[in-house]
Amino acid sequence: MIKIPFGRPDITSNEIKSVVKVLKNPILAHGPLSHKFENFFAKYTGSKFATTVSSCTAGMHLFYIANEIKKGDEVIVTSQSHISTAHSISLTGAKPIFIDCNSINGTIDVGKIEEKITKKTKAISLVHHLGNPADMNTITKIAKKYKLLVLEDCATALGAKINKKHVGNFGDAGVFSFYPIKHITTGEGGIIISNNKKIIDKINMLKAFGVNKSYLKRRVPGEYDAEYLGLNYRMNEISAAIGIEQIKRFNKFLKIRKQNYNYLLSKIIKKKTFDIVKFNNKPYYGSYYCLCIIIKDKNINRLDIINKLNNEGIGTSIYYPKPIPEMKYYKKKYGYSSLKFKNAEKFSYRSIAMPLGTHLTKKNLNTIAKSINKVL
Fold first, then answer.
1. Helix (H, G, I), strand (E, B) or coil at 325
2. DSSP per position, 131-145
3. 260: left (phi over 0), alpha (psi -120 to 50) or beta
4. 305 contacts 353 by C-beta, under 8 angstroms
């Protein structure tokens, strides 16, 4: 029985009160709270603009639609990520061109990007893997050289920075996830930040059927026109209300996660059988999403380790079960073979994610460390 879950939403009476307040009002969508949340989030990340969406996946999909990525185009993408990072490209008809991650922290191997660029390449999609920032200096230089768009997948990277600049602000846009076990939650949802007003303005229309006037801007109900073929990817007022309360407390959340990481690191007995992915290599500052263990000894069966940790009451996770090109859909469609993305395979097949969330007590942390030392 899992007594210490991998993740748990940090919900207080403030979130509950804010939801009840929304439910007592007639506006559950198209309301002012999503805009308020956008302003809070833009201010926190230091971005000029932000727009809420129904999920991180929706946000990435909207970015590609807004920038007219289509069939025949190619987008370079890391092989080590959630499947949605590639799906959002494929949904436009474009082809994801996969690149291996590096062996240190699982972010895209920047040394392999240029060799994959062709006349069809329109963008680079990178992931700040488990809250470790990617090498944005190199990526933006390459993008500028070849006139490519850059999308930052920041799903697990809220709070991550490079030289005090928040991730999501280096490329053309950054997209965040508010899934229940992420740094903050809205139940389900996401947000896009950008310093390009044209991108955000277009996404604002595309996420709401492509219409040119939002509900709040219509002088007469029903007075609008459709400028684009859009979707319904909006965030509702209940989610936005939760998000507002969550972002207010995020500095505290991040501080606790960092403390939990450092405490666990100090209590785990280092052995030759495994490595731990490190955070906080200046000028890179991680978001402490999880403590990631990489099993080095090939004689150790990862599933056995996970089962033993679970039997100790410790919840774990895997990020991610397979490199994306080795997932059935992409393997079948493009014929990718195994053992082509060696570093991504190391993270996918040899890693175990341990909890760092705000739900952990010192007693929990001691139990986790003791269990890791015992099992590994």
1. helix
2. GPPP-HHHHHHHHHH
3. alpha
4. no
Assess if CATH 3.40.640.10 describes domain 13-248: yes
At 211 the pLDDT is 83
81 and 324 in contact (C-beta within 8 Å)? yes
Domain limits of the chain?
13-248, 250-375
Beta strands in 81-231 (DSSP E): 95-99, 121-127, 149-153, 161-162, 165-166, 173-177, 190-194
Q: Tell me if residue 294 falls in helix, strand or coil.
A: strand
Stated pTM of the model: 0.96
Q: How confident is the model at residue 225 (pLDDT cuts 50, 70, 90)?
A: confident
Other C-beta atoms lying within 10 Å of the C-beta of residue 4: 23
- Enumerate residues 6+ apart whose C-beta is below 8 A from 318: 306, 348, 351, 352, 353
Q: Are 366 and 19 in contact (CB under 8 A)?
A: no
Angle between the N-to-C axes of helices 237-248 and 250-267, in degrees from 0 to 180, rounded to the nearest 10 = 60
| Alpha carbon of residue 282 to chain centroid | 21
Question: For the residues of 229-273, what is the DSSP string, one character each?
Answer: ---B-PPPHHHHHHHHHHHHTHHHHHHHHHHHHHHHHHHSPP-TT
Question: Cα torsion for 315, 155, 251, 201, to the nearest 10°?
Answer: -150
CATH number for the 250-375 domain, one of 3.90.1150.10, 3.30.429.10, 3.40.50.1240, 3.30.565.10?
3.90.1150.10
Q: How many CA atoms lie within 13 A of 103 on its CB side?
A: 5
Q: Over the stretch 162-204, which tens digit does the pLDDT of each residue have?
A: 999 999 999 999 999 999 999 999 999 999 999 999 999 999 9
Residue 314 in 3-state DSSP?
Answer: strand
pLDDT value, residue 295:
97
